[in-house]
Specification:
66% of the residues lie in helices and 7% in strands. It has a 3-stranded antiparallel beta sheet with strand order 1-3-2, with no helix packed on it. It has 2 helices and 3 strands; from the N terminus they run H-H-E-E-E. The protein is rod-shaped, with a radius of gyration of 24 Å. By secondary structure, the protein is mostly helical. Helix 1 runs antiparallel to helix 2.
């Protein structure tokens, strides 16, 4: 019961708060990057404009890298946390009884343990 509650809270928080925030920040970093490219190209004859365009390009790339890394780290943490639920064994794992299989089908082999199918 507790694992389902924690999993539900994690999923709710990620779907309703974290994913939209990361999506917004990825869009913002992309806009900063594109703005920097436009500044760099438009200010080809002005050294100050090109320098500022380079800075925007660099900060946009840094922002994109951080948001993609945060998204990947979040995915790893969520999958690690939710994979600890022993009632949802993936297909092919040895199960003690049919109720442990994800599809609720436990194929019996010659041994006393079954394999989730």
């Amino acid at each position: 019961m507790f694992a389902q509650t924690v999993e539900g809270i994690i999923n709710y928080t990620i779907k309703n708060a974290v994913q939209p925030a990361i999506g917004f920040l990825i869009v913002l970093a992309t806009v900063v990057f594109i703005w920097g490219v436009i500044e760099f190209i438009a200010g080809a004859d002005n050294e100050k404009a090109r320098t500022q365009g380079k800075q925007h390009i660099i900060w946009g790339l840094i922002g994109l890298f951080i948001m993609v890394a945060a998204s990947g780290l979040m995915w790893v943490i969520v999958n690690f946390w939710t994979s600890a639920d022993m009632e949802k064994l993936p297909s092919g794992k040895v199960c003690a009884d049919p109720s442990q299989c994800k599809s609720e089908v436990c194929v019996r082999e010659a041994s006393s343990e079954g394999v989730c199918g």
